[in-house]
Write a structure and sequence with these properties.
Two copies of one chain form a homodimer.
Chain A lengths: L22 H8 L6 E3 L2 E7 L3 H18 L4 E4 L3 E6 L9 H13 L3
Antiparallel strand pairs in A: 1-2, 2-4, 3-4
Chain lengths: 111, 111
């Protein structure tokens, strides 16, 4: 049975180290994303905008998605840039949920 | 002539190293703030909230103030915390504007 594409998938409650992805799984999922990088078991990407209002509107779109999926990234917000970083505290590393949300955030900027 | 209290003051365009505050000025202004700290010429404070929606509503209040004063902090946003950090790129360090905005952000949480 083929896996659900990340963009069509939904986050599920994941708790415990059995849901922590290993390096092989992480690299396979990373190939499905555009512009995201891994650093110290955090999946991150920087987005740039023309002005502060555009930046903050993006932050709010990310927050809406975070609430809907009940999976919340760390954000670093400057005047014209937002760094979005995902990891899953409840699994002690990266989970499938991080990649689902990253795919959806990426899609926000292309829809 | 007494200085305008930070909370009643407004940011003005400041450019050039002559507007960079020295250590004595910084310490005098810091005494007028509650909960803010200085680290590597950045004025910062962490705010904590009960949930993500409260966190994001605060982020938006900060953004509104940032636009009004045309002085924009760096933000680190987690599920229940926001770190607000000010410095003034155009002066190469801390300026009076950083302290004005810090005072106003602090007031947001007490009004």
């Amino acid at each position: 049975m083929p896996e659900t594409p990340l963009i069509e998938d939904r986050c599920r409650p994941l708790r415990g180290p059995q849901h922590r992805l290993d390096a092989t799984q992480i690299l396979a999922l990373l190939k499905q994303l555009d512009g995201w990088e891994i650093d110290q078991e955090r999946l991150h990407r920087e987005f740039r905008f023309a002005d502060y209002r555009s930046t903050m509107l993006f932050v709010n779109a990310v927050a809406w998605l975070a609430e809907r999926e009940n999976h919340h990234p760390d954000l670093e917000v400057g005047y014209s840039r937002v760094k979005v970083a995902y990891s899953t505290h409840d699994v002690g590393g990266l989970s499938h949920n991080d990649f689902i949300c990253a795919a959806k955030i990426g899609a926000l900027t292309s829809i």
